[in-house]
Design brief:
Layout lengths: L4 E6 L3 H12 L4 E5 L13 E3 L3 H10 L4 H8 E7 L9 E6 L1 H13 L4 E5 L2 E7 L2 E7 L4 E9 L8 E4 L2 E4 L11 H7 L5 E7 L2 E3 L9 E3 L22 E5 L2 H8 L23 H7 L7 E6 L6 E5 L7 H8 L10 E3 L2 E7 L17 E3 L9 H19 L13 H12 L23 H12 L5 H23 L1 E2 L1 H10 L9 E2 H5 L6 H7 L1 H7 L4 H12 L1 H18 L17 H10 L4 H5 L6 H10 L3
């Protein structure tokens, strides 16, 4: 009935879609198995992509040949670049998406790929032989053969939905939970745990008083995510902002005694940085109000997402409180918010390639690894898909270092430190964030994707080479071109900067606080005219490279020291029990996690610098 596949991907969420595309674009024959073909690439929670650090991840996925950036650009309703008041390391793109269009386009792109087949049914187990994954088993007993399997089960593994005192099985509202896989993996020796996430009520936009809220428009000149030639966003949909109040909080508190979060029915750990409204009221009791973002679900629907009002309180309490929020006085609710508990597997059980340590050619990606967020899932799926293909071809795994990408930071954190709460990416997690900006993701990663053998990278590589070349030309021009006091002093006076007394190079003006390349272009028509021959994105890269060259150089020096440790390999057969000079904790952690390099070993919690010195001496270094 079925041919033998190179890679089977289980689950068609953001991780599964990127995993299937990555393996297929490298030449593998892929089967994408999902319980419901109608919910491929479903935005289960908020209809948005990107955000702080998450936007950097989407651009990295795009630079490596993934599809998330392309799909977002073609289906977004609003674009905003966050943190523009801070330095460029913090700039983060975010887009409001049309939920239905997003999922539809993803499905169309997957179906258009000749290397991807589909099967609509629950996968209940992995076929394992001699410690290796060789296929999957479905609910009706079909076995489909493959050389590698990627599990991207999201919140579906033994999913349990909570609304007040009600609870019922489900992986998402209206969809059943997935069973069988957890029990099998535990039987194979895997450790599992429970995590929790939640979602807010959906509201009828026709019943909302928009005039009572603050309008949040998109950027005047919206950018995009993909480095490919995706269309520019011409028309944008506004979002809105409103707030809870003391009265809203008091109403919500009346349901606390029936809250599954407070009465112990929910055992799983929830996301620290995206708490439910009841959790916020409990933890921040001193606050009289909390901000809510009122976000449209699409161009052609009146359904509204109330971002910031995630709740698992009884539906009657949710509705009563909702109607006391400014603008929601006559609100009609499509469905209440809910919490969902699901199984995950602590990611310290994975190799840095996302392959499991216990079963060869079995890979985990997404929320099964304890992460939260579409973007975190997508990048894991991409990496798992690439490495599943490489494993099938018996080639070395593809690993991104912490200095290469936010993706590298995320996977390194998961595998070496683990997580006991839903892991979310932040810029603060990356120690080299001035190198890992959203504007240079293509320069960092596209050449790597081409070397990997990712298909259809020729145009991308050509554009990256042009970007690098033009940016260097612009940098050279700014370093050598002078500017007179008469030309620049009016601008300097406007920003309260000391006036020039003599001609200086443009570079020295650019180095002043509160001055970016766009400011100089606005103040100097001749400069603007000269730079207009280059793509604005390329000019902006040159400006950032010049302005922050000292910081960039310092981080590059730090990277060089780190890379030296990454180049010292550790054999998989290393017997740490014989290294008596290691601390007991280090022996235990190293034996469990089996780091591939000294650099990786140095980032394991409980392994001290003196333990690293012992390892280096043992390795003759």
């Amino acid at each position: 009935m079925f041919p033998k596949y190179d890679v089977i991907v289980v689950g068609a969420g953001h991780a599964g879609c990127e995993a299937a595309v990555a393996a297929a674009n490298m030449g593998s024959k892929v089967m994408l198995a999902t319980m419901n073909m109608q919910t491929i690439a479903q935005m289960s929670c908020n209809p948005a992509m990107g955000g702080v650090a998450k936007g950097q991840i989407v651009r990295e996925v795009d630079a490596l040949g993934g599809y998330s950036g392309i799909v977002t650009d073609k289906t977004m309703m609003q674009f905003r670049m966050l943190n523009l008041s801070k330095g460029p390391a913090m700039w983060s793109p975010r887009a409001q998406s049309d939920r239905a269009q997003f999922a539809r386009l993803w499905r169309n792109m997957l179906e258009a790929h000749p290397n991807i087949d589909f099967w609509q049914e629950m996968v209940t187990g992995i076929v394992v032989k001699d410690g290796r994954a060789i296929g999957v088993r479905t609910g009706i007993g079909i076995e489909i053969e493959s050389d590698a399997v990627v599990l991207t089960n999201g919140t579906f593994l033994n999913g349990l939905i909570h609304i007040g005192e009600k609870q019922f099985g489900g992986g998402r509202a209206g969809e059943r939970a997935a069973t069988g896989i957890t029990a099998q993996l535990v039987e194979l020796g895997f450790e599992s745990g429970r995590m929790k996430t939640g979602t807010p009520p959906r509201v009828d936009g026709r019943s909302i008083d928009w005039s009572a809220m603050e309008t949040q428009p998109g950027d005047e000149n919206p950018s995009k995510f993909s480095f490919t030639d995706t269309p520019k966003l011409e028309k944008q949909h506004p979002c809105h902002i409103t707030y809870t109040s003391k009265e809203v909080h008091e109403i919500l508190k009346t349901g606390f005694d029936r809250s599954p979060m407070f009465n112990g029915r929910i055992r799983g750990q929830g996301p620290r940085y995206c708490p439910s409204i009841e959790d916020k009221i409990d933890r921040f009791a001193e606050r009289d109000r909390h901000q809510l973002f009122v976000e449209p679900e699409g161009w052609d629907t009146c359904e509204i997402y109330v971002n910031g009002f995630s709740s698992s309180l009884p539906e009657d309490v949710q509705f009563k409180a909702l109607r006391k929020i400014r603008g929601f006085e006559n609100a009609k609710m499509f469905r209440p918010g809910y919490a969902i508990e699901y199984d995950y597997f602590p990611p310290t059980q994975l190799k840095i390639s996302l392959e499991t340590r216990l079963v060869k050619n079995l890979f985990f990606a997404g929320q099964i690894n304890g992460t939260t967020g579409y973007e975190e899932a997508a990048c894991q799926g991409l990496m798992a898909g690439i490495n599943a293909h490489l494993a099938v071809k018996e080639e070395d795994p593809f690993v991104l270092l912490r200095s290469d990408a936010y993706i590298g930071v995320l996977i390194d954190d998961l595998v070496n430190k683990g997580t006991d709460e839903p892991y979310r990416m932040f810029t603060s997690r990356a120690e080299y964030r001035i190198l890992l900006r959203q504007d240079n993701a293509d320069v960092r990663l596209t050449p790597i994707a081409e070397k990997l053998g990712m298909q259809n990278m020729e145009e991308r590589v050509h554009r990256v080479n042009q970007k690098i070349e033009d940016a260097k030309t612009v940098e050279k021009y700014i370093r050598k071109t002078g500017v007179t006091p008469d030309d620049i002093n009016p601008f300097l006076e406007k920003i309260n900067s000391a006036p020039l007394r003599q001609q200086v190079k443009l570079h020295s003006v650019l180095m002043r606080p509160n001055t970016m390349i766009d400011d100089l272009r606005g103040a100097l028509p001749a400069l603007d005219k000269h730079l207009s021959q280059y793509d604005k994105e390329f000019v902006d890269l040159a400006g950032i490279n010049l302005k922050y060259e000292g910081y960039i150089r310092k981080e590059q020096e730090m990277v060089e020291k780190m890379v030296r440790l990454e180049q010292v390999k550790i054999a998989e057969t290393m017997d740490y029990s014989k290294l008596v000079s290691l601390s007991g904790e280090a022996r235990e952690k190293l034996a469990k996690l089996q780091p591939r390099t000294i650099g990786q070993a140095s980032r394991i919690s409980g392994v001290s610098p003196s333990d690293i010195s012992v390892l280096l001496v043992h390795l003759g270094r």
